[in-house]
Design brief:
Length: 479
Amino acid sequence: MKAFMDKDFLLDTPTARHLYHDYAADLPIIDYHCHIPPQEIYEDRRFENITQVWLGGHQVLADGSDYYFGDHYKWRVMRSNGVPEEYITGDKPDRERFQKFAEALEMAIGNPMYTWCHLELKKYFGYDGVLNGDTAEEVWNLCNEKLKNDPKMTVRGLIEQSNVAMVGTTDDPVDSLEWHKKIKEDASIKVVVAPSFRPDKALNIYKPGFVEYIHKLESVVGREFKCVGCVEKALEERLQFFVEMGCRAADHGLDYVPFVDSPELADVAFKKAMAGEDPTKEERDAYMTYLLAACARMYKKYNVVMQIHYSCLRNPNAKMLKKLGPDTGFDMIGVTEGSVPLSSLLSKLTDTDELPRTILYSLNPSDFDMLGTLIGSFQGDEVPGKMQMGSAWWFCDTNDGMYQQMRTLARLGLLGNFIGMLTDSRSFLSYTRHELFRRLMCNLVGSWVENGEYPNDEKALKKIVQGISYYNANRYFNL
């Protein structure tokens, strides 16, 4: 029987162990897509206890609205164990909330959360034991002592000891990027903290708050919008500002990928929405298509990577949406038709040589083979792997999901040019997800070598493993 999460955790063969320990483990991390707040990096926040780091909490904003922040994965684990919501997003004492989570984690055999939590406890707190209801007090005291007294346990310290070379945050076009500016001006901050352009609220014409958001964008650029072209122009101005501040990537979070190629209908949709009317499905898809294509052309022009995340069905639980609002851990995999609209969009951009470097993620693993073949139809010669099949995202971010994504990419494309892992996280402890990914990647590559499916070519294996771990992303994002 293997020991629990020892140094050779998930490394089943001598080749896998060699590749991980000698080539992958110590390379820097490029976390090119996450949701951590740049303000906390600049202010070098120190957390008071492990509950703040892991579970987050609830606060009332200046406008009187409720805001819930924290790790949705952990919230779902607690809900699946029958924990009352008052311990999850409510105002129960942090020690009690941690106890409830520890009791739920014990039941999470086979869930990636079990692995992530114990990797974090081991790496950042030096805890080699097992977290459960009986050990919760011990772990609580250990973690809180380190968080309080260890100089390396501030936000910047966590980033530094994680060997992070780049953090790509997620930022709205109306954001002033004041914290990014302060970070750039602070010579003591060595990590690259790059804003990423996320114009979802300007594109999602059918979602609540669209009109109010457009008025915010008008205020930022200083003029009223009369047509869809005005929105396009405003977004380009904001993207230029983001690029000046170091932006290397943009991201689009779409419920589904639209494609109705009609500028006329796009303009009709915009004018209807701003007048308080409801555009038809065709009109709103035309509006979204127009701006998605316009943004892609901008990204090509300003050398910015485009990311598209799609096929998420958000907030299916109407009762909990009403109670807590969106982004509180109640989303699910959606079933959408991505092949035709995605290929049509990419073809439109290719016709005019305006297709940027692009990373495509579907939350539905049944899309993996489609994406693997789609990217092969639109590759370019400006960089190896211009079109990327994104890493296993969200609910796919499991051992099985990562293996499936990598095997699919290997079968249908070139795994050796893959840009690797990201955290997509709101936690400064989530960098261990890169460790888990690298272990699985080395185990997969090692298995092919041990099975005689790939030669034991040291030079080639080193290039592949180090490329996927670090160098491919370094090249792809122009670091």
